[in-house]
Amino acid sequence: MRSLHGTTPYEYLLYSPKISRRNDGRLRDRDLKKYQHIELGGWWCSGVDPLNNYVLMMWGCFKPDHPRRDRQKIHKFIKYEHPYREETRAFFLLVPNRIWVKVSNRSDIPITEEDLQHRGGFWHWVWRHNVPVTIVEGVKKVGALLTAGYAAITIPGVNAGYRTPQDQYGNAIVFCGDRLP
To answer: FRET pair for 29, CA 20 to 30 Å: which of 7, 63, 99, 151?
Structure first.
């Protein structure tokens, strides 16, 4: 986790090529206005990407110190911001060796020299040795579980654990009964 403030959070949240920009490349005024609250600061968290050789992901989560109101639910605030116009991802936090040892001891699965040398480190070890993994919602919960010695990943929201299939026009494909295509 890291603290962000000023214009720095824009680099973390508004990088998508899918965001409409002015001819000079600047963000549109409506997007700048929508996200102006992030300049007041907050914390950022991201993880590693097991689908891309365990490199640090650009995608992550920002918890603003002063959240914005949800336009659909006027009495609610949007507590967490994710990169605008980017698909949500699961979080595989970067796990230090001291936490890795805790998970190893709790699961009774040793860490080999080969595991330590692999670029994927902890997450490759989890995959390779089929270490039980807990899936939770939220980076604070996953951090707490890892610190307690449990292998855990997080998804950004309760509905992020599934995808709705769509046809070529973007319409949701609805299945009737228990027949799948």
So the answer is: 63
